[in-house]
Design goal:
alpha/beta, TIM Barrel, 6-stranded parallel β-sheet, about 35% helix, globular
Length: about 500
Amino acid sequence: MKITKDLYQGSLTLLTDFYQLTMAYAYWKSGKGEQEAIFNLFFRKHPFQGGFTLTAGLDYVIDYLDNFKFKKEDLQYLGEMKAKDGSAVFEEGFLDYLDNLQFSCDIEAIEEGTVVFPNMPLIRVKGPLIQCQLLETPLLNIINFQTLIATKAARVNLAAKGAPVLEFGLRRAQGIDGALAASRASFIGGCSSTSNVMAGKLFGIPVSGTHAHSWIMSFETELEAFEAYADAFPDQCIFLVDTYDTINGIKNAIKVGLVLRAKGKEMMGIRIDSGDLTYFSNKARQMLDEAGFPDAKIVASNDLDEHLISSLNTQEASIDIWGVGTKLVTAFDQPALGAVYKLSAIKDETGEWVPKIKLSQQSLKINIPGAHRVRRYSSNGKAVADMIYLENQEINPRGTVIIDPSDPTRRKRIMPAFYQEEELLIPIFKGGKVIYKSPSLLDIKERAKCQLAAFDSSHKRLVNPHLYPVGLEENLHHLRMELVLKAKKFENEKDEF
């Protein structure tokens, strides 16, 4: 199921930083508003000190852009803004311009559920400067968060080694929209279900859940609570056993399980939410097996993340299903992806595209100029290397060199003729109109699964992952260095005066 149409019930055009509007006004005032430009949205480092990132959020972007329009009340609000001297911040003519503005950009993007790497454009926007500029904040807001959570979910699911992971972070998520977006991104990243009922309705994600400690505490005894729950849900009983004493809780679950069996029903399992999860899960497995419940599942929760799950698996804990909440939906150990949105080219008066470079004292922050694309090379279904290259550059099938944009000494020779290739940037909007058919969320989830399977396990390690080769095609590398040296020479000349 794809995202519900008009999730936000109309335009969110004012969901932007104020400086985007002041720049848009200045572009309009200087006559540059309709000058064509290219902007790229990309990130500089993998989150969680990992070796891969899983992109998500494109369907939200499409929904946002499909409703991109300044409403009358938006323009009224902007018109009422006052400068320090009491004058209007924005001229009436600019507000009229915004009122008549029709979204007309070309958008290309890497599809959701794709494994991506630093410096490659996740989204490329081409169109009038004002429109491109106004899209910066909302696109970053959407892609940064969902990509971060999808990546966290993928790491958690890799640690779970095929065991189901249930996402139930709603109560700890960053607000209503944060919870919905996190549930969707977690599903893309591999989670099998969510506790978030609204996310289930909007996105078609399976919902799951049992009961809380408060259910047990509302009865005189734990046994009574289990009996009542079994009476209400005889076909889906998973008992939370650690309210008072975990071992006694397991015993009570077994007692009720035997009563259910006598009625022709079967207990699904138990959940442990505290204590030594290895000890109690192994003890529970032994007790359940001995009581004749070898198929009963053991669910574990309690502030789990990929590192704790990996540790518990190493300890051979008897856990069949993982319930992960806070540390997944909040990306607990890294609160932001840090993706950026940079101008890479602008069209001059002659109609020629002029590549643009941004310098920094940190080489990591020097952008990649020009109109470029991304190509993935694979062999027998396994990813070999990714190449970022100039849009109109002919690639020699007999061989080319890719150069790490962060470390020019790292190079790899690619023989394209020996590999399968995939263009990762896909047309999404043309002239402001959607031309991309969004896949279902299940299809996106399946794409993510296949994408992850295409990469060697060394790139997916939780700690000290091996670096996957991603580089600039040598012509793009030379262009970048040429522009860097030219800009630095210009700055040095200025310093002499």
